[in-house]
Amino acid sequence: MVSSLPSDALRDPHRVLQDFYQKSKDDGQDFSAKVASYFADIFKDALNEIPVMDTSTPPHIYKESSLVAFRAMIQDTLPPTEMYLSKLSSGACGGWGATEEASTTSALDYNDLKESSVMWAVSIPGRSVWSDLEGSEASASSHKSSRPHKYPLHAEPHVGMQLKIYDTSKAEALKSTDIHDFIGILTSESLQVADMDPAATPPLVPTLHVLFSQPLPPTIIPRVFPYAPSSSSVQDLRSELVSWLADEALGGDRFAAEWVLLCAMAKVQSRNPPILPPSLTLSRFPAPPPGSTNLPTLRHALSLLFPSVSAIPLSLETINTTQFAPESRDEDLVSGWLQLPKGSVCLITEGGLSEGGVTERGLRNLHATQEMMKDQVLNYVFPFSNFGFETDVSFVVLAEGRKSTFFNQTTVNVPFAPPSGEQLPPDALYKPADAIKLPDPDKLEAFRALVGGAMVGTAKVGEEAAEHIENEFVKERQAAKMTSDDLILRMLLARLVALSYHVPEVSVDIWNKARALELERKAREAAAAPGSKQ
What would the pLDDT profile of 381-432 be if each residue is shown by its tens digit? Predict the structure, then answer.
């Protein structure tokens, strides 16, 4: 491999592509697949040298035919495929933004017509700044895509663009909400639209001719399980993490902080039998001060720990007038709040609710949310049918009352209860991100490695623990203190506790910790019930 290839490709990607084509065009192999392997190999150790496209460095700042990297989520796979001339009359390679001159009159060889897949991709919704491509300096930006209806988080700055993928085997495997690093040649081209009026002129949109792509894990940054910190035990690190989250975002409520972390790091373990992330309602959570538009500090704190955190600030206007589930309109997939990549944390806040009615559209939105919480499936709406897409999103609901106004089927309800005797200032739970006291960088990275590893880990029940659990269940059921549903929830919780300690097996000790958490949660619920003595 010639060491100058990365710099040559950065300077003139079309030239490097053409040189490779001339060397390999007659070997009988699929050229588009070879392109992906060739360019991936060129940048195997130099990926961070590729300029990054995001809201602080959007498409329009790059010159035509620049080589760029886009960390993105597939939003729409519906656009029609495009035919392109794979070999130009000059003998050069076609595709990847290289086209025949309009004046060319050579007879067309239909054997040279190939097909590329066209998709729409957007910035990863809720992506935390620290999880971006290395070398990207994200900053405050007002950049918005020319097609904002295709981004799940309404009105937030983002990049959206058309992808043209020439390796059709790779394209066929891509699904909505998949996240990848796409590396390709940037141009501005007409939007591919199905059934467009022949007299109409399609708009020009940023277009990335993909040379190669790399799938991303749900954690975006790869993590390992179990994790072994160098300076302190996992137990100490976990305790510090719970304390930090409680102090900075939850008024010192360590119990609530532990439940939030456990539910936020939960992921789908199995579809059959269903072992799905438990949804959490943090009830009795104070509404923001009058006139405040701040999100709860919890949202900012979670974004410092998890790679993708989205917030849905519920109001009657949001419920009744915005899109929650994606819907196909005129062959164009309109996004919704819930079109989130696997591995996301979704924080739903009810502090902005007021009196009023919910429309039919609002009821559909609420139903879609509840079903996604319960089954980890989101139905996309098409003209004559719905189609369910599997999801893997953790939900935390902040409710002002003793339960959620709309989502009564969340898996667990933890009443918020700051330490007794402490009077929280009105804005203590709604301070901005820059008011959070950060741990030192190494400690913060250790926190991220801890939760990230838990997200990708698995935990089984050990033999000794299984026997202990069975005996305990028999005793508690005979005493009418436990149902089979209670057992299922406690088993799920025990696995999460094990993962949070980075141990791959539920032991008797882990089981007892989970049991204590659940019993205290039930005690809090009883204390918060109407008529109880506070």
Answer: 999 889 999 999 999 999 999 999 999 889 999 999 999 767 788 789 999 9
d(CA 438, CA 245): 10
> Architecture of 234-439 per CATH?
3-Layer(aba) Sandwich (3.40)
Burial of 285 (0-12, 13-18, 19+ CB in 10 A): buried
Instruction: Give me the phi and psi of 353, to 5 degrees please.
Output: -75, 145
Nearest to 412 by CA among 521, 513, 487: 521
What is the SS3 assignment for 275? strand
Task: Give the model's pLDDT for residue 231.
Answer: 47
pLDDT tens for each residue of 280-330: 999 999 999 887 878 999 999 999 999 999 999 999 999 999 999 999 998
Longest dimension (CA), the chain: 89
Q: How far is CA 89 from CA 307, 392, 479, in A?
A: 47, 48, 84
What residues contact 281, with CB distance under 8 A and at least 6 apart? 397, 399, 403, 404, 407, 410, 412, 413, 414
For 361, left (φ over 0), alpha (ψ -120 to 50), or beta? alpha
Residue type, 106: S
DSSP-derived letter for residue 331 is T
Domain boundaries defined on the chain: 5-215, 234-439, 458-534
Between CA 220 and CA 426 the distance in angstroms is 35
Q: How many CA atoms lie within 13 A of 514 on its CB side?
A: 27
**How far is residue 375's CA from residue 392's CA, in Å, rounded to a whole number?**
10
Residue 362: DSSP 8-state:
H
Residue of 478, 496, 467 lying closest to 264 (CA atoms): 496
pLDDT in tens, 21-44: 999 877 767 899 999 999 999 999
Q: Which CATH class is domain 5-215?
A: mainly beta
Its pTM stands at: 0.93
